[in-house]
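Question (not urgent): is this output format expected?
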Amino acid sequence: MNTSDFYYDLPEGLIAQDPLEDRASSRLLVMDRNTGEISHHRFHELAGFLRPGDCLVRNNTKVLPARLYGHKINEDGPGAAVEVLLLKRMEDNCWETLVRPGKRIKEGCILSFGSQEESDMLKAEVLQVMEDGNRILKFSFSGIFEEILDQLGEMPLPPYIKHKLKDKNRYQTVYAKEEGSAAAPTAGLHFTEELFREIEAMGVIVANVTLHVGLGTFRPVSVDHVENHKMHTEYYEISEEEAEKINQARENGGRIICVGTTSCRTLESAADEQGVLKAGQGNTDIFIYPGYSFKIMDGLITNFHLPCSTLLMLVSAFAGKDHILHAYREAVEEEYRFFSFGDAMFLGDLTSK
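Got this back:
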């Protein structure tokens, strides 16, 4: 299977640069995964496509303001400016990071972040330069790390978003709780508290899982053949209580509908071959592309993804590549907004009850 099979043409002007003022006013393309039939709606109409007993599974990860700007410390004072992106938390205040420019930032270098007045708030030593060029940094600070990050850090927006985010909370879901992501689970950005109340009032079950989204979400597929791509790993957790909710809904005949590809990857990583979800925690590098047999997911709410990306391959595995590419062409014609701050799709079996 060729990576180029998942290409589509997207005018640059359709890449959403800013979030909408009202989260639930984004557009919603609804497609039956079996027939490919498409209809166009607004996201606040989502409840009309759900049924009592369905289980909506959302990823409650919280994005860290993980982009830091600082400088290298030389013996004679401040040195070159650096940008650090936190990728993965490790033990003892260590993080795997992406450092730019990286050539001069070698093992043993000391970095400082913030203004001159803030320079003692956060420092880091480069412990290791990894094979892929990422750096392991050990941070030193006085106080609570997350509070310092909130003061000094910026949201790690994807590279295709050129506008500065005015409100950090607009790159968080309204249900974000567990800190640790380098990127938002963007399908969840469309939900409001009011919409959840409406959905739950009609008898839909809402369950939470956690998967901390890594930078690999934005990493392009650089191989010609899909099967040769190596996925990044991401940490996930599913509690006993939430696993029981999901399993019970499934036993009772409800559909398991994932909010976003991260929720999908979490469930498909933790379910057995009979579709029973196992509570626990771990790292997953599951790669879902056409030919994959889904074990537990029956429906998917998702944004529009980049051409030739692993996420486009995942939705193609669920709803069929031809159906998905047809839907994307129609979305371009209808001038939907694409990617992280863009519009959404709901994919599922919409005919059987």
